[in-house]
Amino acid sequence: GKHWTVSEVRALIRIWSDKNIQQQLEGTVRNKRIFEQVAARLQKFGIDRDWKQCRTKYKNLKHEYKSVKSAQDSGSTSKSMKFFNELDAILGHSTMEQASKSDN
Q1: Which residue windows are transmembrane per the record (predicted)?
Q2: Of 45, 50, 55, 71, which cross-links 35 as Cys (Cβ 3.0–4.6 Å)?
Q3: Could you give phi then psi for residue 77, rounded to 5 degrees?
């Protein structure tokens, strides 16, 4: 698919930061329906992406965030990403919970 622009990613993150969407995403693996909602909301911003593109971008952002986060946790500052702060606002709390779960 075509490359995501900064404003497209921002819009995706804005939708993703919706508590309702977050809860749905955290609670399910079969999330096609959720990403169809996300894609529909992006359309309202004039962004034409299908649910698969949204899901792929979501997964990639989440993966990138986690690798930057764990690099930071291990004291490395070399890794960074464009939307880290925005994602940290969304994922910071949930990844901490998961981390503490996997510790014990």
Answers
A1: none
A2: 55
A3: -110, 5
